[in-house]
Amino acid sequence: MTDQRHDARYQARGASAGKSEVHAAITAQSAGLFPGAFCKIVPDDLTGDPDHALVVHADGAGTKSALAYLAWREGFPIGVWRGIAQDSLVMNLDDCACIGATGPFLVSNTIGRNARRIPGTVVAEIVAGYQAVCDVLAGEGITCRMTGGETADVGDLVRTAICDSTVVCRIRRDAVIDASRIAPGDILVGFSSTGRARWETTDNAGIGSNGLTGARHDLFGGGYRETYPETAAPETSPDLVYCGPYRVGDALPGGGGLSVGAAALAPTRTYLPLIARLRDAVPAADLHGLIHCSGGGQAKIVKFGRPGNRYIKDAPVPVPPLFAAIREATGMSWAEMYGTYNMGWRLEAAVAPAAVAACLDAAAACGIGAQVVGRVAAGAGQAEVVLTTPDGTAVYR
Amino acid sequence: MTDQRHDARYQARGASAGKSEVHAAITAQSAGLFPGAFCKIVPDDLTGDPDHALVVHADGAGTKSALAYLAWREGFPIGVWRGIAQDSLVMNLDDCACIGATGPFLVSNTIGRNARRIPGTVVAEIVAGYQAVCDVLAGEGITCRMTGGETADVGDLVRTAICDSTVVCRIRRDAVIDASRIAPGDILVGFSSTGRARWETTDNAGIGSNGLTGARHDLFGGGYRETYPETAAPETSPDLVYCGPYRVGDALPGGGGLSVGAAALAPTRTYLPLIARLRDAVPAADLHGLIHCSGGGQAKIVKFGRPGNRYIKDAPVPVPPLFAAIREATGMSWAEMYGTYNMGWRLEAAVAPAAVAACLDAAAACGIGAQVVGRVAAGAGQAEVVLTTPDGTAVYR
Questions:
Q1: Contacts of A14 in chain B (CB under 8 A)
Q2: Residues forming a β-bridge with B376
Q3: Residue A205 neighbours by CB under 8 Å, 6+ apart
Q4: Which of A166, A212, A219 to mutate: most B Cβ within 10 Å?
Q5: Which residues of A touch B54 (CB under 8 A)?
Q6: Which residue in A14, A26, A155 is closest to B114 by CB distance?
Q7: Smallest CA–CA separation between A211 and chain B, in Å?
Q8: Left, alpha or beta for A252 (phi > 0: left; psi -120 to 50: alpha)?
Q9: What pTM was estimated for this model as a whole?
Q10: Beta-bridge partner residues of B287
């Protein structure tokens, strides 16, 4: 990305979209059995079976829990905390699903809380939220079982609450979707992050669970810096803390009555039932890659696929209202927005042209919007995403 | 426990030894296949094999990382962070080992950091620390594999760094050590948490990774409250923050030259190679329970075993210097100390009398001190621990 201004703004808030420093710290670790796959896949040491592999995958809701806390304190129902559990779990599940794992999944969770800010009733909501996701998936024929967890009272470490989870699953090695197979000629199908999937009970504003540090501080203001200092790092310059135009209950422009707070807290949609359907509907030879467009947004795919791939995305999904509001509030460039947020599709498939219709059909059966967003071409050097929107063209490497 | 004074002190610091509120929040969760076992054991959904079971277990280093941060800032080598990884991982592994699991283990870890306080070099040390434990265990014939992890920059949530991990293992159901079998007539063997196990390179002060919020604030002072406000919850009353007599580099009384900081940061010893040896040396019918004396210290066993068991502990291990220093600094009663810290043995076995000699032999072969610390008697009502020390007798229910 060439726009460094907002990356500096990210870093000034103690977050980063790229995490190059962290990647440098873990380079000594093995890349696993399928180095080009969407998540790390390891041998099945539990059984020793050479035909199978395991994924043990950790992720969390990130700073979205700080927004849940703030909204809850501002009068949102305590149930907003269930959404945080869903964020934590789905960020994991959908990563695993991108390598073709469709269960059974086993889940453990950790909650680190400041007990003076987060009572047991909130812990109970978070735990219930994990179970609720499992229940929804059960209704879709997918097994996801909570195995337990750990709640630690660590107020000396945590300002409010941090919610992480770990997912374990097993997959036949010959069933792995290995994103290194994404190749020139593939079509990119984007699956909407908004609307209402068949397994959702309300419309989803689409943000998922990344980029929330920036979105929160740039969307919201109204004195939150003074009222809820426990939701911001004291090291951050005050002019970057809750410097936005909205209070959490304010209406989202173009949001059909949804509040900005509810939109930003929309629980991360799981695409798992759709991915299970795609596995059935698309021949394995045609399903080359699935990308969970979380951190890094629409630039994420550049880390996958054959070397030198040129990802031409020239038919993006119309920008959903929440992302338009974030763009407006942050003053970020469109290029930066697409390099941070999913901007309307949090899952994309790279498939052979013959498989496009099946992808669109599968999405329709799930109540999820889908469209061809681009294609894969051969490039000359480093892999790149060339994104064209009504606002211009940006290149990500 | 009848002494409520220090429990109040715990709560005033936002920690708790008992976590009754959290337990209330998760009562709806299933207890698993062996409700009386030391950790939750679930069906092996990954393979569907009815003869096997799985454990997916989460824990972390708790607030010990705040002490590592402080000591590192005070000039301790950056390698103290490796110990935090060991704390996080061993708190998990040793829980799993108490049900008889001896590997292979798969590990995922999460680091939530405030990037302004915790640079990538610290992240690298933590990651290396996890691998170092795996390497030591490999030398003991135990497979423990890192599968990856997630480092999140969440300064709005985390003051310094929080380090958690999740361990996955598989065990034959007929090999589970089910602590519900602990019964009257059993002998309690305690395994020292101090000294130097065969797989350790330095002497261990024995504290493990629980009770560190209290120990840290009551042991250390010297202006740390003002110098490192990022290591304490601002909600805590200032007179409870770093109100102790020591600086981290001060000599531990009776510690043979060890500093108080190094003693309190002693990486949690893993008993795993010892437990593997116990499994070989003691007939399964005689090995009724293994208890990891972490949170709840020497009162922990009261939650396990047959209803009404009376755990008579009348031959405790001599109090190690670090615990004596904590006792002195906190003004806690001995009863409270034993109900919080391990006080010298972080693992105990409940075995048939015929198996005692084998336990002692196994410990000796590992370089770990061991002794009979008590026995199990039949009681009339609620299970209880009756602990007799040179300072008196305390009862825990």
A1: 114-116, 153-156
A2: B311
A3: A194, A252, A255, A258, A262, A263, A264, A266, A320, A321, A322
A4: A166
A5: 46, 106, 147, 168
A6: A14
A7: 11
A8: beta
A9: 0.94
A10: B351
Q: Amino acid identity, residue B245?
A: P
CA A73 → CA A372, B238, B275, B297, distances in Å?
42, 25, 47, 36
Answer yes or no: are the C-beta atoms of B380 and B308 closer than 8 Å.
Answer: yes
β-partners of residue A43 are: A53
Cβ of A63 under 8 Å from any chain B Cβ? Answer: yes
Task: For chain A, positions 5-24, list CB contacts with chain B under 8 A.
Answer: 11, 13-16, 19, 21-22, 24
Residue found by looking up tokens 């109090």 in the block = B319
Residue with tokens 């338009």: A324
- Report the residue count for chain B: 397
Determine whether the interchain pair B45/A106 forms a contact, defined as Cβ–Cβ distance below 8 Å. Answer: yes
Residue B171 is which amino acid? I
Residues in Cβ contact with B265 at an 8 Å cutoff, skipping those fewer than 6 apart: B64, B67, B68, B71, B76, B80, B83
Nearest alpha carbon to residue B142 among B313, B274, B289: B274
Q: Given the structure tokens 């967003």, which residue do they identify?
A: A373
Q: Which residues of A touch B211 (CB under 8 A)?
A: none
**Rounded Cα gap, residues A272 and A346, in angstroms:** 12
**Which class for A203: exposed (0-12), middle (13-18), buried (19 or more C-beta within 10 A)?**
middle
Closest listed residue to residue B355, CA positions, set B181, B103, B171:
B181
CB proximity under 8 Å: A 254-313 to B:
none
pLDDT, tens digit only, all 397 positions of chain A: 333 445 667 677 777 655 666 666 655 567 899 999 999 999 999 999 999 999 999 999 999 999 999 999 999 999 999 999 999 999 999 999 999 999 999 999 999 999 999 999 999 999 999 999 999 999 999 999 999 999 999 999 999 999 999 999 999 999 999 999 999 999 999 999 999 999 999 999 999 999 999 999 999 998 999 999 999 999 999 999 999 999 999 999 999 999 999 999 999 999 999 999 999 999 999 999 999 999 999 999 999 999 999 999 999 999 999 999 999 999 999 999 999 999 999 999 999 999 999 999 999 999 999 999 999 999 989 999 999 999 999 999 9
Count Cα atoms within 13 angstroms, Cβ side, for B64.
29
Under a CB-based contact definition with an 8 Å cutoff, are residues B169 and B110 in contact? no
Task: Look at residues A19, A6, A8 and name the one whose alpha carbon lies nearest to residue A300.
Answer: A19
